[in-house]
Design brief:
This protein is an alpha+beta fold and 116 residues long. Helices cover 29% and strands 15% of the residues. The protein has 4 helices and 2 strands; from the N terminus they run H-E-H-E-H-H.
Length: 116
Amino acid sequence: MDQALRQADVRGCDEYRHRGVRAVPGGIVDAELPRGYFDGVFVSNVLEHLPSQDAVGAALARIGESLAAGGRTDAVTGPNFRYCARGYFDCADHTLALTLPLSPSTCMRPASTSPR
């Protein structure tokens, strides 16, 4: 993402952001996030726009690195492919068919481990 566009996004949100919240411009994988810092991360309506399952895994791994011990990630996808399959790909940048519940631990589980 172009640096000028990143700065415009951050400045455009200033009036809506609480004073104690710091914006970190960047992509979900390349944003400069501190390691082991956050108690929780909430990701909403992002993962279904990534280009591949590998990209989702990379994003969740990056988020995982930024969590403090015992931290948690909640991921929400919308719309849910399970309930609107017919029109899901009408949005040109919906590239993955994700359904809920989507647990980051499920996404990051080694391929040799069977799902619960």
